[in-house]
Amino acid sequence: MLKKTLCIIAISTLLFGCQHEGKSVKTVKNEGNKEEPKNEEVIDKEEIDTIFAPLNGLPISQVSEQRPVAVMVNNFHLARPQSGLGKADLIYEVLAEGDITRFLAVFQSNIPVKIGPVRSARDYYIDLANGYHALFICHGNSPKAKEMMDAGLIDSLNGLIYDGTLFKRDPSRKAPHNSYILKEGIEKGVEKRNYSFTEKVTPLDFTQEPVAFDSSWNSVNEVFIKYSYNPDNNVTYKFTEANKHFQRYQDGVVAKDALDGKQLQIKNILIVESTHKFIDKYGRRSVDLKSGGKGYYLVDGKYKNIQWKNVDGRIIPFTLEGTEIEFSPGQTWINFVPSLSTVTIK
Q: What pTM was computed for the model?
């Protein structure tokens, strides 16, 4: 009787396949019209959604609730190559005094071990950082930026206060181009100031599909932004067909991350026109971040004319018809210019 029962169980298993641990095994007919498990077709019953980083749209292994960190990065020629830029999710480039730009590098998916050189703050960089509720890191400040930080309008770590403790000097470079913030310094500063370092981050809009290029797009191999009569301060982006990214050049030198020596790989470029005004005898500026305006969006060797808008503190591209444009996954650079006439597209 026992042998008969075991035989029936074995036949049932062959006929109907098996199920175990939330997975199903498909069966196929063999030449003898019997059904056998086909191991390579094991399929999870539970559908698992791919998780994407909120500020660069790339796949990640698990949901990240890292609070964004926005760092003022020096772009004077003696500060290059900078450290950590290759890990930024997005980078704003805006004129400070004179004809020299500075970066606001926003990190969320990956905070590198060293970022810098760190430079002083301006009020419009603080406004941009607040669009991501970021922890703001600078070394020095304009009077208006100091008022904003002192009033608690943003959580900040300032190298003027923490020079030599949270911020470290690189002896191989001359001040003021040698102040860096280390990842451990950020973590210690957050604990010291009792800041939140985790939160649910509102994502930017990314498409996970190839961009559908229509007649509104044109090809671009190279774009030049003239910030200055000094070639040290001007910017060129060149498209590389092999990897579908842009490389960045200043004064003929390709931008690299000093941490690993790798060239920056830029997926999206926004060039946006905004009103710039001088506000004092030192050449400090106001930059209009709110009114929106004209611009260009570049991706995958193509560009189109766009309009930009400030949406909850973030600079977002829209078609000329008013439809929001989704970014492609990868690093994004947003260049503010006083006039699109300073931009040459080849």
A: 0.86
